[in-house]
Amino acid sequence: MKIKWMVLAVVLVSFSGVASGLDFGKLLEERVKQELNKDRKTQPEQTSPAPDAAQNTAAPSPPAKQKIDARQLGFALFGDYSPEEETRIGRQIAGDLLGAVPLVRDDKLQRYVNLVGNWVALQSSRKDVTWRFGVLDTDDINAFAAPGGYIFVTRGLYQRLNNEAELAGVLAHEIAHVTLKHHLKVLKQSSLIGALGQAAGNKVKDSDQVVQNLIGNGAEIMARGLDKNAEFEADRVGIVLAARAGYDPWGLPEVLQDLAGLPAKDSRTSLLYKTHPHPADRLAELGEAVGGRLDAVHGKDLPGRLYRIR
């Protein structure tokens, strides 16, 4: 029975009308700008009525006083996203990615990456997540994670992999971002900023609106990347997850070593360096953090099991 397209393709977005040869990084950055300018474009211009002649000499009225939205502030300081809210945020961000570039049209490839990814994800602490993995049809070299278990690897990166352990290492790094809720923590910081600067007349009406107001920030995070310490932490946790899954823990470092050798001005890595620290810096951080602790771990590379894109 022919394998159907990934659940991602059904629940997120249609692939029609998107050319695979487009500049993925440029498209994503344009999508982010649209998200960030959406509110500014949709707000109607406020025009002041013509002043009355008798009031020309009156003192101008004081500006409206900004008030804190107590509910949004309380959420930013003490609240947390429910699994449903996390999934909604991740689905929207993943849809933005797939709106810029589609998945590779290879059922066996997508199924294989999902099998490897879900096996590695089972080694994590997030049992409340439905994990979804996909390979994006672009020559750019990158990988992305979104809240709720949405993980993407680009075709450009996948084709550089030499074995299944390297694939597992890349996916484990992105799984670690979701497990550690790195994106959600940044979104909560954005929520705090929004609460402190929000006018009383624009208060959030319900809890769902909180999620919707953060979608634009989510798109921005995907394009600009996380804090470098979050990336270093995901590297450390990622190699542990890969080792727990039975793979050689050095799969991810081998990928980083390969990427570090690419020319500095390689256009395929332009977005990678905007969303991640340089591979050489990540290798140095891993070396200091791990040392010889994993020398006794002998996992499998499985080069013969790596699916090759047709």
Please give a handful of descriptors for the protein shown:
310 residues; mainly alpha; three-stranded mixed β-sheet; 14 helices; 3 strands; 5% strand; disordered N terminus
Layout: helices, strands, pairs:
Layout: H1 7-11, H2 24-42, H3 70-78, H4 83-100, H5 107-121, E1 132-136, E2 143-146, E3 150-154, H6 155-158, H7 164-179, H8 182-196, H9 207-213, H10 215-224, H11 228-244, H12 251-260, H13 270-275, H14 279-290
Parallel strand pairs: 1-3
Antiparallel strand pairs: 2-3
What do you see in this structure?
The chain has 310 residues and is mainly alpha-helical. It is 53% helix and 5% strand. The protein is built from 14 helices and 3 strands. Strands 1-3-2 form a 3-stranded mixed sheet. The relative contact order is 0.15.
Spatial ordering of strands, largest sheet:
1-3-2
Q: What proportion of the residues form beta strands (DSSP E)?
A: under 5%
Structural class estimated from helices and strands: mainly alpha
- Counting DSSP H or I runs of 4 or more residues, the number of helices is 14
Tell me the helix content: 40-55%
User: pLDDT average, as an integer?
Assistant: 76
Task: Extract low-pLDDT stretches.
Answer: 1-22, 39-58, 64-68, 72-78, 192-207
**Largest sheet features:** 3 strands, mixed
User: Which radius of gyration do the C-alpha atoms yield?
Assistant: 23 Å
Question: What is the first-to-last residue Cα distance?
Answer: 20 Å
Task: Please tell me what the overall shape is.
Answer: globular
Order of helices and strands: HHHHHEEEHHHHHHHHH
